[in-house]
Amino acid sequence: MEIKNLHRHLKRAASNFESRPILKCVHYDEDGSIAVTDSHRLLVVKDFHNHEKEFNQDLTTMKLNDGVYPDVHRLIPKEFKTEITISLTVLIRIMKALGTNKEEVVTWKLSDEQITFSNQSDAQMYGGPIQISANASVTGEKFDISFSAKYVKECCEFFMDAKERYAVDNVTIKMVSPLRPVVFSIDESKHVYLVTPVRMG
Fold first, then answer.
1. pLDDT tens across 48-79, in order?
2. Which has the closest alpha carbon to 7: 58, 66, 76?
3. Within 13 Å and on the Cβ side, how many CA atoms surround 30?
C-alpha cells in the first residue's frame, strides 16, 4: 500500500545536520524495511521493499551513502509498562493547539480514562498552564511525560497518511518510563514511530 507524502515524512524524521550525513539518509534494510532517524525520533516502515540487500540513500540528493547506519532496531523497547489508546484525530488537534511554537514542549498527565495535556509557553504567558483533557484508555503505570509537540504532531500526520481510509481512528502508544523512547503505532501494523521524551526539571 502506498503511503501519501512518504518522502516528506521521511525527510522530516531525518537529520538535517551536515555533521552526521548518514542520518540524512533513509536506510534500506535487507529484511525489507526502511528506517530514518535524527536520533530523537525514528520512523520504521516494514515490508516496504524487496531489494534483499541494505543500503542508504540521501533524502535530499537521492545519492547512495556507503556509511554505516545505526542499528535502529535496538532502539525499540521490547517490554512496556504503560499502554495508551487514543483517537489520532483528537491527539493531532491537541498537539496543534498546544504547539504554539516550534520548540514547544507538551506534558501529558496520565490517568485511567483520560490524559491531561499542558504546554510550557502558555503557562509563562498566562501565569498558569493551559490544559486540555481528552478521553483515552490508559493501562499500566501512570506518570507525567513530556514531548516535543512538533515531533508528536508530525508522527500523527504520518499515521493519518499511512492508515487505510477506513481504518479505526486510534493510535496505540506504548511507554516504559518518562525518559525512555515511546513507541507509536496504528493497529499493530507495519508502521512504527518512536519518539524520545523531553527530560523536564
1. 999 889 999 999 999 999 999 999 989 999 99
2. 58
3. 3
Quick check: 106 and 117 in contact, CB under 8 A? Answer: yes
DSSP 195: E
- In this structure, are residues 151 and 99 in contact, taking their beta carbons and an 8 Å threshold? no
Say how far residue 18 (Cα) sits from the centre of its chain: 23
- Cβ atoms of 60 and 17 within 8 Å: the answer is no
Name the phi and psi angles at 75, rounded to 5. -80, -20
Please state the pTM of the whole predicted model.
0.92
Q: Alpha helices of 127-198 — where are they, by DSSP H?
A: 149-162
Going by the DSSP 8-state scheme, the letter that residue 141 receives in this structure is -
Residue with cell 556507503: 66
**Average pLDDT, rounded, for the chain:** 91
Cα distance between residue 56 and residue 26, in whole Å: 6
